[in-house]
Amino acid sequence: MRNIFKIIVGVLAIIGGLVSAVVIFILFAYYMGDKDLPNRNCDWSETAHTWIDENENGFWDKDEKPLAGVQFVIDDVNFDDFLPLEAVSDKNGKAKLFLFPIDCNVNKAKILLYAITPDGYKPTTSWRIVVPIDVVAGIQSGDFQFGFVKR
Prior knowledge:
The protein is an alpha+beta fold.
């Protein structure tokens, strides 16, 4: 009898989690003012690169290694309603960045990209970038590179 009870509780927990996810998605889509949100291409995504800048010249030279574990904060500073999104660089020094501009209106977006300097390192490039509106709008792609050197 206990096993049946455990199975029923487990199934109800899974169903509850799925229902919660659907409700959250519907509320998010409603808040964004777009009932067809999944069908619209209103997201912004780019890639950031991080590396160990041994010669501290601010450029990723061929002999320099990628730096994993660098945290990024992506923030649309014109809208305080949403928490900033985060990303982390992988073993290849790449971090996939995402943001969903309010009402898909990139003309109102002002995206700031922050690289959080890892412990034991210092930046050799700017740690903060204002993303150009042409990049936000998808007219051109961004090349966001962040170099670090050990202290």
